[in-house]
């Protein structure tokens, strides 16, 4: 039995459950099980807090703005206790987000994130989301930058 492989397999499953069942399914009871109380988000969204409460608030805000919010996971890679995931989020803009009134538009945006898992719980997060693309789709930014 390779302990490193087992840790990676468990970590990958935890991150996938978060993506599919919490973010995509709105299962906030599972959120409380999957996230450690000492969770740290190294890249919180503007106005958010870098802790478990901040992550929960972000997930709640996304589910309110996009009730059908879900991700398609393209790939995951594991290195030790860290899981890197490349995914595309999808949803329909039915609630306010970033101060923007609902548009009814279908959206999608790519994200790459890394989550560190300890004892079956998510303890750290680093992520990059293509929010510029999201804001373009919602009509808050121009589709193209002006010519120089």
UniProtKB/TrEMBL annotation:
A single BP term in Gene Ontology: polyketide metabolic process
Record protein name field: Ester cyclase
Lineage: Bacteria, Pseudomonadati, Pseudomonadota, Betaproteobacteria, Burkholderiales
């Amino acid at each position: 039995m390779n302990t490193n492989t087992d840790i990676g397999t468990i970590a990958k499953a935890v991150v996938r459950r978060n993506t599919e069942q919490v973010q995509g399914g709105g299962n906030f009871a599972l959120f409380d099980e999957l996230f450690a109380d000492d969770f740290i988000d190294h890249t919180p969204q503007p106005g958010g807090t870098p802790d478990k409460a901040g992550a929960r608030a972000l997930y709640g805000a996304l589910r309110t703005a996009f009730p059908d919010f879900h991700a398609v996971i393209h790939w995951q890679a594991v290195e030790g206790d860290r899981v890197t995931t490349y995914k595309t989020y999808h949803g329909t803009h039915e609630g306010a987000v970033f101060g923007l009134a609902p548009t009814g538009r279908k959206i999608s945006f790519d994200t790459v994130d890394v989550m560190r898992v300890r004892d079956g719980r998510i303890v750290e997060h680093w992520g990059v989301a293509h929010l510029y693309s999201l804001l373009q789709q919602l009509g808050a930014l121009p589709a193209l930058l002006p010519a120089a």
